[in-house]
Amino acid sequence: MRFITATGLAALCWAVPAPGFAQSPANLAALRGLAPVARLAATPEGKAALAANLKVTGDIQSGAAGQPTLLPLAGQRQLALRDCFITDGNATQLADGLGTRLGDAYQAKARYADHKTFTSLAPAVARLIGYTNTVTKSDSNAGKYFFANGTTDGKTPVSPEAAALLADGLTADVFGKAYGRPAGAPGSDAFGDARPFQTLPALAAYRSEDYFGHPSHSLDWLRGPNQDLMNSPSFPSGHTTYGTTESMVLAILVPARYQQMVVRAAEYGNDRIVVGAHYAMDVIGGRATSLHALAHLLANDPAYVGQIRANPAVLDPARADTPKTVALADYPAVMKEARTEIDAFVGEVCGRDIPACAAGDTSRFKDAAANAAFIASTLTYGLPVVHPDRAGTSADVAALAPEAGHLLTAAFPEITLAEANGILGETLAPGGGFLDDGSEFGVYSRLNLYEAGGKAAALAAGRRNGAAPSR
Fold first, then answer.
1. pTM of the predicted model, to two decimals?
2. How far apart are CA 56 and CA 8, in angstroms?
3. Are 121 and 109 in contact (CB under 8 A)?
């Protein structure tokens, strides 16, 4: 392992661009929800949060934080390097959260032979993964350059609707400026929001194997050639958006492993900090972006369903066996189809129901106490309060984010949406964080789906057994 030193200088002002590319209504909702990050430099609380963001990120990345990860630091670093590759065509790298037996069977059937060649578990599962990932990825990608320099790709102007947000007290390149690496400075991102490997005073770099078992180095996935992030703005984390999205799809499809898949989602996002690609704030932003979009999909929100989108599962345009576009008019219906396929798959694997098949887990997710401790370390990352009026308060989930409850009811249909939103409200992470400004998005930034999933599962089990345990 070696350490890379990073310093920087210069500045970039945010000029409101001329009207240009039209963001979708979903994109605009994500930009509005993520916008508090661009106001952090305007208050003492925000500046303190920015300073803590760099410190927390550096401590996790170096190992000084002593974070309760599910693997020893050396092993977690190795996994973080493997997690740099994204299996967005079939979610297979995340399926280890399904448990030893079921996860191994999933990964044996849905595999990546190389960077572009992969198999799917079943047709409806493939459609579900493809559409869901492209929706949440679109929202995440919309934020990258918007918060870095107010554009869509570094140069193209945003829409008039998005441009109006820029006049609302937002500051571009908040990370680059706060950490002495403004856009265009030597070694920084050309567009803004330089990443931790460009701003940390020291970076732990290491060798291991990549997803395919080939010798690799962490810097290969930061500076290239495997993935060049030198001019790719940091906020929000696209990897975290993907990892949360597809982990939650698997959690809903396999409710017996709901909590473990929530843990896998958190681990995948946290691994971006471990490898040096993202800040804690990036991970929180990516997670909130994913959960917000997924809840709206589950609610069949017209802004999120019924559209024709490029299929992210098509990594090789020459392939003729996969649709180049995907459109889902009824998202819950396809989720139901996919769950039927998963149930049939479990029957093939072990001839028993999912809870029985998922039992006997010997993976790193087998210890409930360790899972809970790790989740607790990632909910807010210990970042200080930015919105004091929200600290120590709950939130009316049903009023602010009524569709959020679908994240539970889709997995546990025995409970009502009102009950689900009540559980989410009871289990929210501490308030007042950098995105928790009283908005809908602030709710998504506080969701503790690990604890909420446990409560929802218990309530649903009671209903199935003829008794409803009190919450």
1. 0.92
2. 20
3. yes
